[in-house]
């Protein structure tokens, strides 16, 4: 690509570029040197430039726009989605942003500024103002004329939103329905009045849930006075769904979620996100030392008991991890609610009883194989069953309690439940040992 | 709802029903008794019935359809999405399916039968045949007439697909573009020829990745001869994205993924999905017993070493879990590739060095606090550092190797890496102990 930009004339560069998709072009352009980037955007069609820029990082978007001629910058900026423009404005200096905003038509610039006021991770921050709005008194013919006039700029194209005098959202009608219906019909006759909309302050995850549940492809966003502020497109919410799953997976893995993609996160960021939970868990796990010292005498009398410590608490941790990850995900997608608490406990404890019994038999076999006393084998077997049931119970109940307390159930991560079961598991082990071995 | 169906006249039931959304209605109807379900569907408009049925389970769909009058069944069936109909047909007996297929217009029935041939989890199995196709020689005016004629049945409404003589996919044009362009224009002049399509045999996850990457809202599916078979809608692929994240989370939690939602999975199913990995890991973990027996002498000489076993291997397991979950997810969303192996190892080992050093200091403090010998404290400190680095390294390398071998990186689950680090961590611990304590 570098070669072609350096060597070719404008026309062949454009022909070459147009054979690729904006996403793929963006991937290549990221690798180019600044000089070539600018050269390319100077000759590209503003629509194409805008589409490519949308896939680049905000800071790079600005660096490129800033080096184009002012009229070209204005054109490209106006063709970009308003939500992308707002994100870029927020990433650059206030003074730089103002200069760019002045290049936009005033009414449009104001809408972008409104989008900039919504905090990250809210529905408002994802909304685009490039939708088509119509009045309920219009005929379909007039609506179509309106669409033809402003449709080139619109990003939301399958739906037309009906707004009232104060900009309040009254309904929605699909482009398909407009085409299928007699042109003289008034919009109000075919509009769906019950439109699903979300307040700008709603969390992005909740918005994505709504979209998933009702199979929507666009989600209108309103302010406190029910006025239409913008519309979220499905591709932005798909990104949210991916992000939220990534966060849940990282949390379940016992670290704070990264705010950037893996390779964009520095080693120090990785360190910071991980060390916090490692330390908390280390301190919690240090409790196992206290437990073991407490049972030092038992341990020196029957040193064979030590052989099974990692095996027993490890199995307990594994069981807990299985249960926790299943439940945290079920809570996240709404399959399980707090009111299901008792159903969940019954299900998990029953399953734990079955897996525990299976493991218990194998554990006794393993103990005898290691050549320890029959009694120690019995202790190991009983402990295995008890720990598995205990781990199932704790792992079932904790995420639900956090959910009820409106905390994040994924705090009960796999390392968290493992650590919890380690300490308590040891107490169970030595208590059973003392009883069975009469120590 | 039950009360209203039992007591009210047809008209008030319909008015009541129409104030809700199909998804919510489906949730309620699932709870009703069969008698009321049938009564309701007998009086509902076929379009509404079809929309509600799409949210119900295939077997329930059939049970309801089967009890309606034949002409009504035919109407409702024809209004349902073809991919949903195909799924239902596959869930019921062959003979029942044939009876239903005969109610559909022949050409349409054949298309549904084609959809039924694609294996689960492939792009083909998600496709609907309710799209709009046009010929490249048509004018936009003719295309619009065609849309008006068949559009009522179409599920894909934002795009029109251009097919050739043999049904091969030639391009796509958006409804918006059709409306914005002069009606006398020929489609071929505005068509996008480079359309992203997927083969019917492609895995659903890969199809969802394409949709995410290119911000599409519909994905055409073609057969081996590039003929258009159907189109996947974005809502079906959103479900796939959710499903795949759920599977990854359950796998990372160390169990085989459930094939049904949590409460639809029986205790026995949970048992089966979990016991396999529990047993494999138990057998692997049993190795720790062998290691400990091997160091029995060392252990009886310095019993204090036993106090730190859970703490040290637990911290190693936690570190490994953090790394594994971050990397498995990064591989799943394509942020990391196999060729990044060395970059990943460098990043993870450096991070491990930093977390390890921090943990090591705290570990020495903790050991001295427990009142053990200074030398033992030193052993604990060195071991903590070594185990954390070792866990980071193994957890970085294993998912990448599995990925390279085209196996699922999520096999390296949190319990897997914990178990691996437990056994190897003990060897590290006692080796360091023997050297430092000169045993």
UniProtKB/TrEMBL annotation, chains A, B:
Compartments it resides in: Cell membrane; Membrane
Keyword Transmembrane: yes
Stretches assigned to the CBS domain: 191-247
Keyword match Zinc: no
Alphabetical list of SUPFAM superfamilies matching this protein: CBS-domain pair, MgtE membrane domain-like, MgtE N-terminal domain-like
Membrane topology type: Multi-pass membrane protein
GO cellular component: plasma membrane
InterPro entries registered for this protein in UniProt: CBS_dom, CBS_dom_sf, Mg_transptr_MgtE_intracell_dom, MgtE_N_sf, MgtE_transporter, SLC41_membr_dom, SLC41_membr_dom_sf
Listed transmembrane segments: 275-295, 307-332, 353-372, 378-403, 415-437
Job description of the protein: Acts as a magnesium transporter.
Protein name: Magnesium transporter MgtE
Organism from which the protein derives: Paenibacillus selenitireducens
């Amino acid at each position: 690509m570098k070669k072609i930009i350096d060597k070719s004339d404008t026309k062949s560069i454009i022909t070459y570029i147009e054979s690729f998709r904006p996403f793929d072009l963006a991937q290549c352009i990221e690798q180019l040197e600044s000089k070539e980037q600018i050269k390319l955007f100077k000759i590209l069609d503003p629509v194409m430039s805008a589409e490519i820029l949308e896939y680049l990082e905000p800071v790079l978007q600005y660096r490129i726009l800033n080096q184009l001629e002012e009229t070209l910058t204005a054109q490209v900026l106006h063709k970009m989605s308003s939500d992308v423009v707002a994100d870029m404005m927020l990433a650059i200096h206030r003074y730089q942003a103002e200069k760019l905003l002045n290049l936009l038509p005033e009414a449009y610039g104001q809408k972008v500024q409104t989008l900039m006021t919504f905090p990250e991770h809210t529905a408002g921050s994802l909304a685009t103002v490039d939708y088509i709005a119509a009045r309920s008194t219009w005929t379909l013919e007039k609506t179509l004329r309106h669409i033809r006039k402003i449709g080139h700029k619109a990003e939301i194209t399958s739906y037309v939103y009906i707004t009232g005098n104060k900009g309040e959202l009254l309904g929605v009608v699909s482009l398909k329905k407009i085409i299928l219906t007699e042109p003289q019909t008034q919009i109000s006759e075919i509009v769906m009045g019950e439109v699903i909309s979300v307040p700008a302050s709603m969390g992005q995850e909740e918005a994505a849930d709504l979209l998933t549940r009702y199979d929507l492809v666009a989600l209108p966003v309103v302010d406190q006075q029910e006025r239409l502020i913008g519309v979220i497109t499905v591709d932005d919410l798909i990104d949210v769904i991916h992000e939220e799953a990534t966060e849940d997976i990282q949390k379940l893995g016992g670290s704070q979620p990264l705010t950037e993609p893996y390779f964009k996160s520095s080693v120090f960021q990785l360190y910071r996100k991980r060390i916090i939970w490692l330390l908390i868990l280390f301190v919690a796990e240090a409790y196992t030392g206290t437990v073991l010292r407490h049972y030092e005498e038992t341990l020196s009398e029957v040193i064979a008991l030590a052989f099974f410590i990692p095996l027993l608490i490890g199995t307990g941790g594994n069981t807990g991890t299985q249960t926790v990850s299943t439940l945290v995900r079920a809570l996240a997608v709404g399959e399980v609610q707090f009111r299901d608490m008792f159903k969940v406990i019954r299900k998990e404890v029953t399953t734990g009883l079955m897996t525990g019994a299976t493991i218990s038999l194998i554990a006794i076999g393993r103990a005898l194989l290691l050549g320890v006393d029959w009694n120690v084998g019995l202790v190991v077997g009983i402990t295995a069953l008890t720990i598995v049931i205990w781990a199932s119970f704790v792992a079932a109940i904790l995420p639900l309690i956090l959910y009820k307390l409106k905390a994040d159930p994924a705090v009960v991560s796999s390392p968290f439940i493992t650590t919890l079961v380690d300490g308590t598991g040891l107490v169970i082990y030595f208590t059973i040992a003392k009883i069975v071995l009469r120590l």
